[in-house]
Amino acid sequence: MEALGLLLHGFEVLLTFKILSLMMVGLVLGIFVGVLPGLGGPNGVAILLPLTFTMDPTSAIVMLSCIYWGALFGGAITSILFNIPGEAWSVATTFDGYPMAQQGRAAEALTAAFTSSFIGSLVAVLLITFLAPGIASFALRFGPPEFFSVYLLTFCSFVGLGREDKHKTLISMSLGLLLAGIGMDTVSAQLRMTFGWEELFRGINFLVAVIGLFGISEILLTMEERLALRGHAARISLRVVWKVWKEMPRYWATLARSSFIGCWLGITPGGAIAASFMGYNVAKRFAKDKESFGKGRIEGVFAPETAAHASGTAALLPMLALGIPGSGTAAILLGGLMVWGLNPGPLLFVEHKDFVWGLIASMYLGNIVGLVIVLSTVPIFASVLRVPFSAIAPMIVVSCAVGAYAIQNAMFDIWLMLGFGVVGYAFKKIAIPLAPFTLALVLGNRAEDSFRLSMIGAGGDMRVFWSNSLVGTITTLALVLLFWPLIGGAIGRMRSAFVKTTA
Amino acid sequence: MAENEIIVEDPTAPAGDSPAVTSTRNADIAVSVLLLAFAGLMAFDNWRTGMGWAPDGPKAGYFPFYLSVILGAASLYGLVKCLRDRSGASGTFVTRDQLRRVMQVFVPTCLFCLFTQWLGLYVASFILVAGFMRMIGRIAWWKSLLTSFVFTISMFVTFQVAFDVIMPKGPLEALFGY
Questions:
Q1: Residue B1: pLDDT above 60?
Q2: Closest residue to A430, CB basis, from B1, B10, B31
Q3: pLDDT of the residue at A271
Q4: Which domain range does residue A253 map to?
Q5: Which residue of B10, B21, B105 to mutate against A (max A Cβ within 10 Å)?
Q6: Is A384 domain-assigned?
Q7: Which of A89, A139, A211, B173 is the S-S candidate for A272 at Cβ 3.0 to 4.6 Å?
Q8: Is the pLDDT of residue A323 over 60?
Q9: Is residue A175, in this structure, part of any structural domain at all?
Q10: How far apart (Å, rounded) are the C-alpha atoms in residues B74 and B60?
Q11: Beta-carbon separation of B77 and A167 below 8 A
């Protein structure tokens, strides 16, 4: 097994005092980010990104990905103890987690949540370990037309499979692609869409936009709500941990189903949020006594947490192997890769072995260490919520500004961040999804480059996207997914018409 | 169970029955119109750059031109859909109380950005944190000032000293030789 050898090498890269301590710092920061209202996984990673600018890429990605794991763990704490989902993907955890806390079983619920998160991401990491190198080496044969068709597939699946209004997904995506094109055109070196505005010449930085869209807008949205809270304090004892772990094997089917759902939705751009709901609903559908769900059933905690973590982790697979992020947070990590001077894509596995395998090894280690940290320090993190939001909000604003400024040392970026904050606030309130926007903004230039390079290669003949079986299949699949709502509807009508005629 | 509970109060919370400022439908229409205008502007600029084909492939404006067309079409669809929907069933976009609270963060944030430009980030952040805690959180002066001071100093140490990330600085930092 070649992958195992490389993974061992990854652990070697990892086991230095510096990286291990960065890992701990990242996990603790991440749990904070997950617990605090008004901060989530994507914006936590985006805001803390500037800390890593002066690090080497391996330390940087280990710290950032640990912030992400920490945020995934942290989201469960507030859902169970306060009935407030710290993250959108922990909404489903509140359904059974909070009732358990009310019955005085908070420690059990927390242990269940953390352990199942751990299992979910473990399954996804195993998938990455053994699948990603293969996909990457296959993708090494890709030329510009293949890459463009994969980008097209990503964009189309967002439109066709997303739950939001189709035209709103389309708005979000085309706006992102458009804004990515502002500035110097990479192929012809021509300036475009700048209107002579000097600050726009180098383009709109992806990370600045993300910090505004997720960080600032989240603060505005959080302030709208009533911020008083009332919840339970909890302490986890070893006895409770042991009790839950003993019970766990009985729920192996739920865990397996949720892991599968999570991995699937993580690789396709669906995201952790959809995965956690789907995991919960599937577990409910397979259960014998459906009524006991929502009343404090431990399975109702296992199912969504496993799925959310599996999908959050699996979203890194297409990012590593193809350079296409499966989630908003993965898109930000991808933005980070570019800042550290790495070129995302299948070549990463060949040119930067230390980096890739260090990252994969850190997923194993980070999740184990994270599990130990959250199990032992829950009381501390729960009491973070005692700090009034009026103290936290301005500090988050300052951190956002620091992050936005540090990327290019430009005051203009701080104003841009503020503008994106307002846009993000308005978009969230009228249900225009932000994930397609993020993805489009980070992939925009590369999608356009691959399109134009294919056009130059083929002399402007669109048939290049059907020139061999591989690229043809992907392009066709992309178009099918784009029009899936129409096709699915037509099949449904045909079937009902068929039933009518035969009946 | 009393000692096992964590309770945090929110003295200035928005009231649940506060009157609506505008409906989601109106906000939807406004955003659609703005996006439509933006798409038009972008389409025009890309048409001017050149949206056709050069001998060596698409010109610089080709890709973004068609994107602005897609954006415009999608916003137009949204606009028409909103205008035709007369059911009046759309929810509240924002209530008066909520808007007041949002402005309580938004205005200080704008002022903070302005101050950053003149006074440097660290001084501005000190003012923002202390002012916000005192004015909006109604937290005692000494607590606000102390928290803000500790926060600003630790930011300075983290970024300037430990991680070498340069932030905008003003007269005060110059006084200390940074």
A1: no
A2: B31
A3: 59
A4: 2-162+181-502
A5: B105
A6: yes
A7: A89
A8: yes
A9: no
A10: 23
A11: yes
